[in-house]
From TrEMBL:
Keyword Hydrolase applies: yes
Family: Belongs to the kynureninase family.
UniProt keyword annotations, A-Z: Hydrolase, Pyridine nucleotide biosynthesis, Pyridoxal phosphate
Pfam families tied to this protein: KYNU_C
Role: Catalyzes the cleavage of L-kynurenine (L-Kyn) and L-3-hydroxykynurenine (L-3OHKyn) into anthranilic acid (AA) and 3-hydroxyanthranilic acid (3-OHAA), respectively.
Record protein name field: Kynureninase
């Protein structure tokens, strides 16, 4: 396995990108699907935004340093990574808030009686947002089915299909093209959450003819803790959307300070308030690493990494109480691999103490994210080896590894 890992690293066309990240020595970082690593050049860019732009230029920086354009500029850069046309993606707010905006937009395009279909593998916040809108609109019914039952639910009747492409727990990947086409045949609108896709997979929003999408800035896009998120609204819907969460940055002329809301042209109408400039500067800088990258190559490396991890774990998995929770078929999963274990929490704490950082998702999932830009095949082998040792020696069974922290 060691020779194979070395050969895979040697043949990796993205291997050189790792040096652009500030990864601590002795750590194998397998949680880039939850918080992307820090690109080395980002601290200087943020420091300059604080010291020079804020400190010296003060409020003139909004124009002088282009702060006011950040949601658009950064949105156009993300659009290029997810197969979206120019003018369709904006960066702002959190994923949850953006989902509220696009779901309420979709509901308004569908009239009074609307059935929304989602699945139980969706991230809780997505379902909470949908439940909230269901409560606010008497004509809206939310139907949550098992991930395997989505296609059937679509056939039974749907007006808005709201799904996350990659399941945060299992890594199971929906077939975006097939499900979007199927929902469109029934006249439905389709919203995709790309939280675990953007920056890791070759998404093609225009190719699948998605209607709306949202996604995270702090996961595979490496925008930093709490980085703003993005939304996508297909050009064909932009003029028809009258935002429910209307705010001055979505107004046609924010600095005209008109009393009545007039939506901005195009995708900008779903913006709400003042952008978080420092976080946006960090995200904008982090995106430099994606300049000129072929997302097909990024996805291919993610598949190779996850395949290799499964191959490394397979020989001892059953004997040591592990069960693969992710699909074996790499085309059916995203860039993380989940393993079930009865003692997932203390096992992950022991892994972290040993320098292998993944995370745990209740009740029993050990989750390992393989960010294609900075994880190598030797890292994968080393992580699998550490996991085997911890399980064989039962070194996870210590009081300090059982004590629950807030963030798992
Ligand atoms: C991570 C994640 C979110 C996070 O939403 P925030 O509002 O940014 O906290 C939402 N949806 C999915 C599917 C996620 O994986």
């Amino acid at each position: 396995m060691k020779a194979r890992a070395a050969a895979l690293d040697d043949a990796d066309p993205l291997a050189a990108l790792r040096d652009r990240f500030a990864l601590p020595a002795g750590v194998v970082y397998l949680d880039g699907n939850s918080l992307g690593a820090l690109p080395r050049h980002v601290p200087d860019r943020v420091a300059s935004a604080v010291q020079t732009e804020w400190g010296e230029h003060l409020i003139t920086a909004w124009n002088r340093d282009g702060w006011v354009d950040l949601p658009v500029r950064t949105g156009e850069r993300i659009a290029a990574l997810i197969g979206a046309a120019p003018g369709t993606v904006r960066v702002t707010d959190s994923t949850s808030v953006n989902l509220f905006k696009v779901l309420s937009a979709a509901l308004s395009l569908k009239g009074n009686r609307v059935t929304v279909v989602s699945d139980s593998g969706n991230f809780p916040t997505d379902l909470y947002v949908a439940h909230g809108l269901e409560r606010a609109h008497p004509g809206v019914t939310l139907k949550v089915v098992a991930p395997e039952a989505v296609a059937v639910a679509v056939d039974e009747g749907v007006d808005v299909l709201m799904l996350t492409e990659v399941d945060y727990r299992t890594g199971r990947r929906h077939d975006m093209a097939a499900l979007t086409a199927r929902a469109h045949e029934r006249g439905a609108l389709v919203i995709w959450d790309l939280a675990h896709s953007a920056g890791a997979l070759a998404v093609d929003l225009e190719g699948v003819r998605a209607d709306f999408a949202v996604g995270c800035g702090y996961k595979f896009l490496n925008g930093g803790p709490g980085a703003p998120a993005f939304y996508y609204i297909a050009e064909r819907h932009q003029a028809a959307v009258d935002p429910l969460l209307a705010g001055w940055f979505g107004h046609a002329a924010p600095f005209a300070f008109e009393t009545a809301f007039r939506p901005a042209e195009g995708a900008d109408r779903l913006r709400v308030g003042t952008p978080p400039v420092l976080s946006m500067v960090a995200l904008d800088a982090a995106l430099d690493i994606f300049d000129g990258l072929d997302m097909g190559a990024v996805q291919a490396k993610g598949r190779a990494l996850t395949d290799f991890f499964i191959a490394c774990v397979d020989p001892f998995a059953a004997e040591l109480g592990l069960e693969l929770a992710s699909p074996r078929d790499p085309a059916a999963r995203g860039s993380h691999v989940s393993l079930r274990h009865e003692q997932a929490y203390p096992v992950m704490q022991a892994l972290i103490a040993a320098g292998v950082i993944g995370d745990m998702r209740a009740p029993d999932i050990l989750r390992f994210g393989f960010a294609p830009l900075y994880v190598g095949f030797s890292d994968v082998l080393s992580a699998a080896g550490t996991l085997e040792t911890i399980l064989r020696q039962e070194s996870w069974d210590r009081p300090e590894f059982h004590a629950r922290k807030v963030v798992t």
